[in-house]
């Protein structure tokens, strides 16, 4: 008791500017400020102040990227849509609360997570939720009018309602202090929706948070690929282009990549490598590579991971791919006991950055470094998760998230 009273008494005599200089230098982990605020009422009041939170973010954004707090996922049989990472002990203060990051919209599907925001789509696919869990902000958006008209006509079988996918991106112009999107909470954002109104045709809609409305910004005649549909796989952002995978409607085998340029609003197709073996929908993921930010593709083939890099694309349907990396899952001790060489034993859930891939086997979900052939850690049990959406943000426990 005496030590606690002494600490509280001493804190009262520390000038705010000196206290701030000390506290902004603590590690930007979700638990550090919470622990410091428990020392005494004075520290709790100071750390809870808006000015200190702004100073803390500004200090760490100069040298530290936002930490990875966990993953949103698509398994609706679990208690909520968020899996925190950190200490293996679920009660550890080093983990953010899964309940705090539960969107609480039953049946809504997570479709993207980027720049501190999460994008969800309603079960009937005619509403979106743009959610900032760390700041506690939610914005519900009706789908473009064309999709709403189809829903009102009870045309739930229509291509546009069935085959679409979306992405959320920060719309702030790059500049000093905003090169890595480390603090996008107050920045404008865009939602890009790609849909198939008719077989062979793809349309891109762009929602602007500044204007508060949708615009149809691109249409592509993909009649040569009339049997392709947009998959539910996570979208990849490489430089200024969004990439989705397309699958054959009849077989669910992927063969193409749909690209949307955020600057020119151009839609176009890129053919996948022809030598990918048995690459089903859940086993292929588009990504950025560590080689100068080129477009890449990671595929699970048998019990191995193949990394493909797009070396050349001239805009006229001519692609040149190379495969610089292949990892045997047996070498990483990830193969399930008693498994055989069937490709459907490994699922690719997501990628993070230019080198990390998250895979699911019967033994669990693992984080793998493609470029170092390194098993970094086991994330959790396998469950029935088909897709991961990594979430990065500075977060202060007890603030922001509901």
From TrEMBL:
Q: Which organism is it from?
A: Sorghum bicolor
Record's PANTHER family? F-BOX DOMAIN-CONTAINING PROTEIN, OS07G0120400 PROTEIN
Pfam families from the entry?
Answer: Beta-prop_AT5G49610-like
- SUPFAM superfamilies, A to Z: F-box domain
Q: What is this protein called?
A: F-box protein AT5G49610-like beta-propeller domain-containing protein
| Superkingdom assignment | Eukaryota
Per UniProt, residues of the F-box protein AT5G49610-like beta-propeller domain are 110-333
């Amino acid at each position: 008791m005496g030590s606690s009273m002494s600490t509280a008494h001493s804190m009262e005599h520390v000038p705010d500017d000196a206290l701030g200089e000390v506290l902004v230098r603590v590690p930007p982990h979700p638990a550090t400020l919470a622990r410091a605020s428990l020392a005494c009422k004075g520290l709790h009041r100071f750390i809870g102040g808006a000015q200190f939170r702004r100073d803390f973010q500004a200090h760490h954004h100069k040298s530290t990227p936002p930490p990875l707090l966990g993953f949103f996922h698509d398994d609706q049989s679990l208690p909520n849509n968020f899996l925190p990472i950190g200490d293996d002990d679920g009660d550890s203060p080093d983990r953010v609360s899964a309940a705090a990051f539960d969107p609480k919209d039953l049946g809504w599907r997570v479709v993207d997570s980027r720049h501190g925001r999460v994008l969800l789509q309603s079960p009937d696919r005619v509403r979106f939720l743009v959610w900032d869990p760390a700041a506690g902000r939610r914005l519900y958006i009706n789908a473009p009018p064309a999709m709403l008209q189809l829903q009102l006509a009870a045309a739930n079988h229509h291509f546009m309602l069935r085959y679409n996918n979306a992405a959320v991106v920060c719309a702030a112009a790059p500049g000093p202090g905003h090169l890595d999107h480390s603090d996008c909470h107050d920045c404008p954002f865009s939602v890009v929706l790609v849909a198939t109104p008719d077989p062979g045709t793809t349309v891109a809609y762009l929602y602007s948070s500044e204007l508060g409305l949708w615009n149809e910004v691109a249409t592509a005649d993909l009649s040569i690929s009339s049997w392709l549909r947009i998959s539910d796989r996570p979208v990849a952002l490489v430089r200024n282009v969004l990439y989705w995978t397309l699958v054959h409607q009849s077989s669910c085998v992927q063969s193409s990549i749909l690209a949307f340029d955020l600057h020119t609003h151009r839609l176009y197709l890129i053919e996948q490598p022809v030598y990918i073996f048995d690459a089903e929908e859940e086993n292929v993921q588009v990504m950025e590579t560590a080689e100068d930010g080129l477009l890449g593709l990671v595929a699970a083939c048998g019990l191995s991971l193949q990394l493909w890099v797009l070396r050349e694309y001239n805009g006229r349907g001519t692609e040149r791919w190379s495969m610089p990396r292949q990892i045997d899952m047996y070498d990483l001790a990830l193969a399930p006991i008693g498994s055989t060489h069937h490709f459907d034993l490994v699922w690719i859930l997501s990628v993070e950055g230019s080198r990390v891939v998250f895979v699911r086997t019967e033994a669990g979900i693992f984080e793998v470094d493609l470029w170092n052939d390194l098993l970094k850690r086991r994330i959790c049990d396998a469950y029935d998760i088909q897709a991961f959406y990594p979430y990065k943000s500075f977060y202060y426990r007890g603030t922001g998230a509901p």
